[in-house]
Amino acid sequence: MNAVALYITIYTFAAIGYVWYRYFFNFLSRQKKYKKNFPKDQNVSVIVPVYNEIPKLLKQSIESILRQTRNIELLVINDGSNRRTADILEQLQHAYKFSYVKFKKNMGKRVAMATGVKRASGDIIAFVDSDTVLKPNAIEELIKPFSNPKMGATTGNATVLNQGKWLGKLIAARYYYAFNVERRSMNYTGVVPVASGVLAAFRKSIILPKIESFLNQKFLGKVQQYGDDRHLTNLVLEQGYKVFYVDSAVALTHAPEKLFQLFKQQMRWRKSYIRETLYAAKFMWKISKMLTFDTLYTAYMTYNSIVMRLMAWAFIFLYPILILPYFIIVTIMAFVHNIALFVERGVKFGLQSILYAYLYELFVFWSLPAAILTLNNTEWGTR
């Protein structure tokens, strides 16, 4: 067996093992639920940073937060948005009387988040993206795990709001796997590596002392903007607190509707993954064997996937007939990878995950090497 064949064999077994590792801990984690309500005498603040949002969507988002079954303090931070966004925010503030801060110019999402944290009165701080609509009990469910004093952060269950078109349907399948398989599998030891910015909650006493570090994070000599959710999660994990995924805290978020928007979003997420994996390497081995194993295993699969795909497409370029067996393999692996979607959501939804796998191979995957090549570019990319 030559070196290339050996490499492919090792990667193949590692890929299959990775899938079943996820499902094994996903099964164990399903028994971990927090049913006890968070004490009503402790306050909850919800912070919504806003920048140039679609007015109709923004109105839906704010009103869904105000209709929560749990009493909350709402703080909306207008990060120097255009007139159209500012007008709808001022109308909503006049109607509902929530706390409203308006920046004269765009300061960046982290500054908006930090401003909200400093002004919030709640013991628990929840962040909601301005393009996200919450189910009525989302906040009440999201904060239940904080009945455990070691709980530092929680993250909700994000699904796609705009599933009317083909791209939204495919992204919905990807989100389902990301949250209900990947994140849930890490509940077993309470070390979910990212509390998604779509809907996440943090214990204020943990993040407030770290807020300046959060604001001034540097990577490759530049102050960082993107990846705020991953870095804030790392700051919690670094202190030895738990991070938990709550599947009953449902948030419907607006997904990209065009391929170039999806590519830019994925590039931004990949950059933050690379940066925060390096950050986590400083402390993960001290706090959790599970987190260390998961981080290293995921990194191995991620970076070796570049080598594998470059090799595969090089062979296909030289021998075009190989494209058919290649996509047969992609189909089989996608089915194994997403078997939970077929079982839990039905054949139609499962098939969406197969189609997403094709989109990933042909288009989305290339956001990873693009992210590596543009790591020093800190622009947000989708606004």
Automatic annotation (TrEMBL):
User: Keyword Flavoprotein: yes or no?
Assistant: no
Q: Which organism is it from?
A: Candidatus Naiadarchaeum limnaeum
Which GO CC annotations does the UniProt entry carry?
Answer: plasma membrane
Q: Which family does it belong to?
A: Belongs to the NodC/HAS family.
Domain (Glycosyltransferase 2-like): give its ranges: 45-207
Q: Which residues form a coiled coil?
A: none
Question: What are the entry keywords?
Answer: Cell membrane, Glycosyltransferase, Membrane, Transferase, Transmembrane, Transmembrane helix
Q: What is this protein called?
A: Glycosyltransferase
Where in or outside the cell it occurs: the entry states: Cell membrane
What processes in GO biological process is this protein linked to?
Answer: extracellular matrix assembly; hyaluronan biosynthetic process
What sections of the protein cross the membrane?
6-25, 323-343, 355-375
Question: Can the keyword Transferase be found in this entry's annotation?
Answer: yes
| GO molecular function terms noted in the UniProt entry | hyaluronan synthase activity
